[in-house]
Amino acid sequence: MTDKVLTGKRVNTPTQTSKYTLEIRRLFHIALPLMGAQLAQMGMGVSDAIMAGQYNSADLAGVALGGSLLWPVMLLIMGLIQAVTPTVAQLNGRKDYKEIGEVIRQGLWMALIGGLTGVLILNNIGPVYALLDVDPVATAISIPYLAMASLGFPALMCFFCLRFLADGMGFTRPAMFIAIAALCLKIPLNYVLIYGKFGLPEMGGVGCGLANGIINWFQLFMMVLVVSQKRFNMTGWRQKFSAPDWRRIKPLLIIGLPIGASIFAEVGLFSFTTLLLGSFGAETVAAHNIAMNLNGVLFMPAMALGMAATIRIGFRVGAKEVSEARTTAALAIATTILVALLGSVFIYFFRFEVTALYTQDTTVASQASVLLLFVVFFLIFDAVQSTSSGALRGYKDTRAPMWIAFFSFWGIGLPIECILGFGWIGEPMGVYGFWIGLAIGVGTAAFLLSFRLWQTSNNEERIRKLAN
Predict the structure, then answer these.
(1) Least enclosed by CB within 10 Å: which of 114, 325, 333, 454?
(2) 225: how many CB neighbours lie within 10 A of its CB?
């Protein structure tokens, strides 16, 4: 700290270094609970993979294929609702609390309609598997798994809307505690439904889907209790009923549609890759799913930092602290790279031990351990593109990132996957060719999104236009 004399009084002025340190602490204060929540949410997917894999390798493949369609649909609709986070954050920065309440009421209408749409999609997914000639053994498990999971879909979307209210106002711990409680319930519930305990039918991997549906209603109930606390009364979100209002929903969709489309572009490529690999057999799908699960777990810190950047940058833009928002963006990217490097080192040295947790099948384990070497390099690029996207959402800059995502993942990644994996040029590389394509697509997105972030954070006129 340095000293200055101002109006006859000595005051402490923070150095630039201490400002950076304080901002990093604020980012982590928001991000750590989000990280815990995301890891717990991912833990539910990991528990599905491990427990279904221990039951039967076909059930593991069925759950993996089901997840490859469940996650894109879920994240597409969640992305629409995620417009709530930067909107609430900027309103919070402006101290316009009553407007936050109206945003939430309209967001809940979006969540309900989106959730019901998701139910319709997930219960009519069979033709997709037939079109892609997916292994019929895995398909027979995947279709009822999705039907069971869809039972909790409307509850999940409403949960996200209310969670984004809390997140946007900087209260991120409730989501973590709820996710941890949900995981603690999910594991025994999986066991009971997979193996048919207490007189219930033995459902195998399908039981994981039913457990998902039940847990989603539990999470919604808990989040309603959280946002009914006094600290949220200033928003007035419960004080009156609001019918759907297109004038208020439209601005949310303008922000949310590109967010949902961007997330869908990324996760959709990962999921479509899993579907394409379905023709290579259940063992290849299982190995791919193990690698994707571990990548997802170690990707969660970067996702949390991106979400924290959305909240902090949104708040600072709302408070008209444009240069400070730029600092937050730079610190978020630098911190993300460091955390991703630590994750890559962990995977490299412990890939065999971690793979053994998923399966006892030596063929699957061997293939998965090789795929994890791709994750070592893949993780850093994935982390940078995710945090860049999150930071851009804080500025409400979502349209250009959407086009970048589609170009990178579907214009670059997918064609390279098919060329190398199926051997359209040269010898087929199988699953390894698909992972090379994934890595190149994610790397392209990381470069273009970080460049877009640099442009936006230095363009005050663009920032003002996006904030209106």
Answers:
(1) 454
(2) 11
Which of these, 43, 49, 128, lies nearest to 288 by C-alpha position?
49
Q: Are 50 and 324 in contact (CB under 8 A)?
A: no
- Look-up of token digits 């609390």: 97
Sequence-ordered alpha helix ranges (H) in 169-245: 173-195, 206-227
Highest mean pLDDT among 71-75, 91-95, 187-191: 187-191
The C-alpha atoms of residue 417 and residue 371 are separated, in whole angstroms, by: 14
> Which tokens belong to 351?
């890939």
Give the bridge partners for 274, in sequence order: none
C-alpha span between 400 and 392 (Å, rounded) = 10
In whole angstroms, what separates CA 353 from the centre of its chain?
26
With beta carbons less than 8 A apart as the criterion, state whether 138 and 67 touch. Answer: no
As to burial, measured by CB atoms within 10 angstroms (0-12 exposed, 13-18 middle, 19+ buried), residue 438 is buried
Q: Provide the CA 72 distance to its chain's centre, in angstroms.
A: 10
More confident residue, 441 or 468: 441
Residue 10 lies in a domain: no
Residue 283 covered by a domain? yes
- Which residue in the block uniquely carries the two structure tokens 């998902």? 212
Segments forming the whole domain that contains residue 241: 15-467
CA torsion through residues 7, 10, 14, 16, sign: positive
Residue 9 lies in a domain: no
pLDDT(1) > 50 = no
Interatomic CA distance for residues 217 and 189, integer angstroms: 14
Whether the CB-CB separation of 435 and 443 falls below 8 Å is answered with no
d(CA 298, CA 347): 9
How far apart are the C-alpha atoms of 134 and 68, rounded to whole Å? 12
DSSP 240: S
The number of distinct structural domains making up the chain is 1
Q: Cα 277 vs. chain centroid, distance in angstroms?
A: 23
Residue with tokens 């549609």: 257
Q: How far is CA 41 from the centre of its chain?
A: 9
Helix (H, G, I), strand (E, B) or coil at 281: coil
Instruction: Please give the single-letter amino acid code of residue 112.
Output: L
Asked whether residue 31 is domain-assigned, the answer is yes
Residue 251: both structure tokens together: 């601005």
364 Cβ contact partners less than 8 Å away, ≥ 6 residues apart: 57, 283, 286, 287, 290, 358
Percent of the chain with pLDDT over 70: 96
**CA dist 65 → 146, 289, 376 (Å):** 10, 9, 24
